[in-house]
Design brief:
The protein is of the alpha/beta class and 229 residues long. The chain is built from five helices and eight strands. The strands form two sheets. Strands 3-2-1-4-5-6 form a six-stranded mixed sheet. Strands 7-8 form a two-stranded antiparallel sheet.
Length: 229
Amino acid sequence: MRCLVVGCLLIGMIFAAGARGAALPAPPVEESGVQGGLAVWVGGSSRPSAWARQLGDLVEQGGWLVLGLHADAAVVAQVRAELISRGVYGPVSVDHLSAASGGGLPLIAETVNLLILESPVLGGEEATRVLAPLGVALVREDAAWRTERKAWPEDIDDWTHYLGDASNRTAARDQRIAPLRHLQWQSGPRWSRHHDHMSSVSALVSAEGRLFGIFDEGSYLSPQLPADW
């Protein structure tokens, strides 16, 4: 009888430990409605290997540039090594979120499309600051995730046609127009095919936080080489 009681206690301890160590359900990225862009994951799993796998899986879905931030430098080093060994480091990277940051993120305002907060290290104002319009924050709350979406600001306008909108008014109603202060983000192509030929990027318009255009991805080594529109 004594052995039976001890055995039951051991089994109970094992199940309790397993419950404490159970992995948090993966953040509902697909349900967020965000289909790509810059994803920033703050906190990370208590198991570095699991977090490395989650970061790698996210970038391999396509359309994502992924940044992981963690307050533990040892976790950052381990996750970075695992991502490098997997051959995905570059489109996905990790960095140390030091206490010297004062609870802020090393990111320019309104650049993040998907913000995953697994550790309570940020205030709501900082999350709002870094999220792009229509961006989504997935915030961990115990064993569940809460979704917050940033609204589209009324002082930012779209440019849906070649001359502004269907009225060809040639001017935006945007109220944030101002002298340039910094680069918010950059994208390719870094070189155009040739200045005597049609630009590699043309007919650029924007709507609801997305850019649309016509791209010639042909080689820029010579304008005589075939185009690839």
